[in-house]
């Protein structure tokens, strides 16, 4: 089988920790997570790498329960860091880049606008910089919507950060799964007229990206849209070591 014929075969959804955060509407369940795609030729592609090891707790959310690192999740699946061929970087916030430097054998795929903003020294990226800006890491930049491999597409969705990207995967049995990541961190924001969140760099862009993802999910007749930090939703998902195929 040639590399070009390879298609996504499995999607693992990996929760890295849970927290309950007070909101005006009552306590909300938050999750931090990452994802693994296994291709039909055996290649493994990771999406994000979670909280950094030095952050035992997540101050903004009052600590994480049931924390498990990406490395521990991979070990459960009998994988080591060197088995990861590529890491899709949805964006470079600290809760998404914490173990990037554990994967020096991988290609890191990021939107050019995101890498430029981060390397430009914007303060929001400073906390995780030791991990995403490690000299051993090889970055490959993309611009806009890109079909990375057949059945695996990167969807430019700036607003939360300048170069945020969501990920669409087409699976043989499940169908299309859209990982909105932090373009839509919780399901209640998956509406045409959504407000921004305190973490969004640009509220207008965040709304436009949400509309783009709503359209895409409709066009693709997505079987599932996964929201980046929606703990209540994630409790209803098939979580690693189970998988979608
Ligand atoms: Zn996040």
Which descriptors apply to this entry?
binds zinc ion; 6 helices; 29% strand; globular; alpha/beta; Metallo-beta-lactamase, Chain A; 245 residues; six-stranded mixed β-sheet; five-stranded mixed β-sheet
Walk me through what this model shows:
The protein has 245 residues and is α/β, with parallel strands linked by helices. It is 18% helix and 29% strand. The chain has one domain (3-234): Ribonuclease Z/Hydroxyacylglutathione hydrolase-like (Metallo-beta-lactamase, Chain A, 4-Layer Sandwich), CATH 3.60.15. The protein has helices at 70-76, 94-97, 112-119, 129-132, 203-219, 231-234, and strands at residues 8-21, 28-39, 44-47, 84-88, 107-111, 138-142, 146-149, 152-156, 165-171, 175-181, 224-227. Zinc ion (ZN) binds at residues 93, 95-96, 182, 228-229.
Total beta strands: 11
Topology as a string of helices (H) and strands (E):
EEEHEHEHHEEEEEHEH
CATH architecture identity = 4-Layer Sandwich
Strand adjacency order, main sheet? 1-2-3-4-5-6
User: What's the shape?
Assistant: globular
Q: Given the helix and strand composition, which structural class is it?
A: alpha/beta
Distance between the termini: 20 Å
The Cα radius of gyration reads 17 Å
**Helical residues, percent:** 10-25%
| Major sheet size, sense and barrel closure | 6 strands, mixed
Mean pLDDT: 94
Quaternary state reads single chain
**What's the CATH topology label?**
Metallo-beta-lactamase, Chain A
Which homologous superfamily in CATH is the superfamily? Ribonuclease Z/Hydroxyacylglutathione hydrolase-like
Number of helical segments with 4 or more residues: 6
Bound small-molecule species: zinc ion
In percent, how much strand structure appears in the residues?
Answer: 25-35%
Briefly, what CATH class?
Answer: Alpha Beta
**Low-confidence parts lasting 5 or more residues at pLDDT below 50?**
none
The domain count comes to: 1
């Amino acid at each position: 089988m040639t590399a070009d014929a390879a298609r996504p075969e499995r999607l693992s959804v990996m929760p890295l920790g849970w927290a309950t955060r007070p909101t005006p509407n009552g306590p909300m369940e938050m999750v931090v997570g990452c994802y693994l795609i296994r291709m039909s030729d055996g290649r493994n592609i990771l999406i994000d790498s979670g909280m950094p090891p030095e952050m035992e707790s997540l101050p903004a959310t009052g600590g994480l329960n049931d924390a498990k690192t990406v490395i521990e999740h991979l070990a459960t699946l009998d994988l080591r860091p060197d088995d990861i061929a590529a890491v899709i970087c949805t964006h470079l916030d600290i809760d998404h880049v914490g173990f990037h430097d554990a994967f020096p054998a991988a290609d890191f795929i990021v939107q050019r606008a995101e890498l430029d903003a981060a390397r430009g020294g914007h303060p929001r990226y400073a906390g995780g910089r030791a991990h995403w800006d490690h000299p051993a890491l090889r970055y490959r930049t993309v611009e806009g919507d890109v079909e990375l491999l057949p059945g695996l597409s990167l969807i430019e969705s700036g607003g939360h950060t300048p170069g945020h990207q969501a990920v669409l995967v087409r699976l043989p049995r499940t169908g299309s799964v859209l990982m909105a990541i932090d373009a839509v961190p919780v399901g209640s924001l998956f509406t045409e007229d959504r407000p921004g969140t305190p973490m969004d760099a640009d509220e207008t862009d965040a709304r436009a990206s949400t509309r783009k993802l709503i359209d895409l999910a409709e066009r693709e007749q997505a079987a599932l849209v996964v929201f980046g930090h929606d703990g209540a939703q994630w409790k209803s998902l098939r979580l690693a070591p189970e998988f979608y195929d």
